[in-house]
Amino acid sequence: MTGPAARPTPPADTPSADTPSTETPSAGSPATDTPSTETPSAGSPATESPATETPSAGSPSASPPAAGPSAWRRMRMWGAAHAVDDLYQGLVPACVPYFVLDRGYSYVAASGLTLAAALGSSVPQPFIGLAVDRYRLPRLAPAGLAVAGIGLGLSGLVQPYAAVWLLILLSGLGVAMFHPAAGKAAREAAGDSASAMSVFAAGGSVGFFLAPVLATPALVAMGVGATALFIPPAVLMAFVLLRHRPAAGHTRKAARAGRDRWRPFLFLTGIEVVRSVAFFGAITFIELFWIRHLHSGRGIAGVALACFLVGGVAGTLLGGRIADRVGMVRTVQLGGLAAVPALIALRLTPGTLLPLLFAVLAGLALNIPFAVLVKLGQDYLPGRPGTAAGVTLGLAVSIGGLIAPALGAAAEAYGPQGVFTILCAVPVLALVLGLFLTEPEPSPGG
Length: 446
Description:
The protein has helices spanning 69-103, 107-122, 125-135, 140-155, 161-190, 194-222, 231-244, 262-293, 298-326, 328-348, 354-367, 370-380, 385-402, 404-414, 416-434. The chain is an all-alpha fold.
């Protein structure tokens, strides 16, 4: 041991200085010989002592606690960023009916726009996640936000279908750039709290909800060219993230000790894919279901989509609360169990107003597992949080959009009601896959 404690013991006639407790004496105060002085003062050379496990607030080695108001402030920022990012994913299905009605696109062509967004956001995500885990890339999230907004915003201003398709593909690529980096940073802020992580996940649901709420009046008044109005939010939020991103040396590493468990992660990915198919199928065709099958006006159809997405926001937040109490695996299984009767009721209930209740319940049930799947995936792959976020927030979610053309073909043959008949059976597969999940291994040290 180095420092003052290594000096020879003074003569016996100086009793006030002969005890080991004088390792960190206070200037001019000979009475600092109690064991409570383990934490050295700022000027003491004994700063390498093992007793400095709890440094003082002014010590350079002190780090802010993971929990508390500062962590929640960071979660709110990332939740807001997630809302803006997923606004552009939500704008695609919100705009699809207007491309059908204003430009005469067929169901298959309209579903192709959803496919473009899904391709752009799904295929690159695992590779972007790997890059984030290796290089961190703190500017990737704000850059992705800007690309997502600009691509979607310009899509309504061009006429050729191919140009529209490519711009929506570019917007999807921006979403792919955002999710792995943002998911990893959000997990660092959330720690082990599923409720805190649900704030970030619910941000995405809020974005999906705001898309039809904000877009429908603009699209009705201005046509699909109104997409240009949605470029500024992405640019502004990207600027906020650039200004407030944590320094690389100040941010805690997201990777935890423990082994990566790929088998349960693959089952979890399958559940997220199933949930995504049901979710994207519903938001793509729910307005057309109200207009063509329930014979409502466009206004009520927009309300139906909003009700479904409001339920999604509530379900995401509720899922985090439930998971902190009963466990993450049980919460995922509960969501699959509740989704089946909710979708059946939505499909079979007559009228235009009463089915709105079941639209809320269906959105709630489908989103109960959402935040839990994101956190659980990172717990299964503790050494690869960016990769896990890229899959659970990106690839698996976007695959739901890849199925949209098949659902579009079903709508061509059987109408939008045929799509919802298919969706009633989809969550059953999630129930089966949920039986193979296990609770994550506890991190060392609690």
